[in-house]
Write a structure and sequence with these properties.
By secondary structure, the protein is of the alpha/beta class. The chain has five helices and nine strands, in the order βββααβαβαββββα. Helix content is 28%, strand content 29%. It has a five-stranded mixed beta sheet. It has a two-stranded antiparallel ribbon with strand order 1-2. It has a two-stranded antiparallel sheet with strand order 6-7. It starts with 13 loop residues before the first strand and ends with a helix.
Length: 155
């Protein structure tokens, strides 16, 4: 499935986060959202990305941006990841891949000559009206907050 188009309404979703709370896109109407998809909890690049967002969370929040992470890991794994790295934002468990598929980020990947299905690291910036403002493909994990602010024109 292809990525949704910039300018269109963001696909609606509902999922459970690391605390067992139900999180839906509709809960954030009127807010800027940085919805980031990442492959797995506690892997080096995913940890770098989450920690960069954590370290810049106050700045992002001050600019009105809500960070939400999504991976195919379960809520228990997300809770351990959140606790280990003191992550201040929701991490949605998408074990059935329904949200991944709506956003077109569950794709064929190649690594060391092997092909497999997996999450393509992607961040969707959703505006206050629920429209896709920008898609950051292949974000730079250690500079991701700056990328988000730059795309919002807030840097």
């Amino acid at each position: 499935m292809a990525l949704p188009k910039v300018g269109n309404k963001a696909p609606q979703f509902k999922g459970v986060d690391q605390n067992g709370d139900t999180i839906a896109l509709a809960d954030f109407k009127g807010k800027k959202i940085a919805l980031y998809f990442y492959p797995h909890d506690n892997t080096p690049t995913c940890t770098d990305q989450a920690c960069n967002l954590r370290d810049n969370f106050a700045l992002l929040a001050a600019k009105g941006i809500q960070v939400i992470g999504i991976s195919s890991d379960d809520s228990k794994s997300h809770k351990k990841f959140e606790t280990k790295y003191s992550l201040p934002f929701p991490l949605i468990a998408d074990t059935d891949l329904k949200i991944h598929e709506k956003y077109g980020v569950w794709q064929l990947k190649k690594f060391m000559g092997r092909e497999f299905m997996g999450t393509i690291r992607t961040t969707f910036l959703i505006d206050e009206q629920g429209k896709l403002k920008h898609i950051i493909q292949k974000p730079v994990s250690k500079k991701h907050a700056a990328e988000i602010l730059e795309q919002w024109g807030l840097l």
